[in-house]
Design brief:
Blueprint lengths: L8 H4 L12 E3 L7 E3 L13 E4 L5 E4 L9 H12 L9 H6 L8 H9 L1 E7 L5 E8 L6 E5 L3 E3 L2 E3 L4 E8 L5 E7 L5 E7 L2 E3 L4 E2 L2
Antiparallel strand pairs: 1-2, 2-14, 3-4, 3-13, 5-6, 6-7, 8-9, 8-13, 10-11, 11-12
Amino acid sequence: DSINNTFAEKITGITIGKDHIIYEAVDLDLPSGNLWCDRNIGAKKTTKTGGYFRRNGFTLDKISLDSAAGINWDSYIKLLYSRLKNETIKYKSVPEFILGHGWDIPTKDNIDELINNTKVEPIQNKNNCIIAYKLISLKNANKFIIIPSSGYIKIHNLYDKKDAMFWSSTAITNYDCNYCFYIHDKFNISLSAADLLSSLPIRAIRKK
């Protein structure tokens, strides 16, 4: 299930970069039937981090250099802001802007469902360092998504870069934080919290 309107340039006529990112919708046979995007927003490969986004409006903070080759991100950011501010075409979130109608930030319950219905295997590079994690459907071992090690950015510094993280849209009551998906190692998979000064990757979700 490929997403045809990769980036918003097809509807604006603006060329963002020489290479498109082809996002795929993955069916993990979850009870809800929800589909997960195969990669982080802005990642050219499933094992790459992609963009880091602030929770406040999910605006773009930084793109990791290794995943941004061939893309003019300055032009992309200008386009993003111009489209989000457009008075006639409204976008609820970065995933809807980039991937199209129906795509959004996962909720806490969406992430709980993902954790409870998949098993996790680490992916290592040739130096035996973990670079990502494979979340495999409990119903079908041939269906999986890859969550890269990313950490988070705060005040221009990258922290916990060996950990795999992405935003939830669910705020934590009485705290200036949101829930987030978190893997420290294959034995520590959970929901965690990230404050609104932090920037994390986004992994999109939509209904089937």
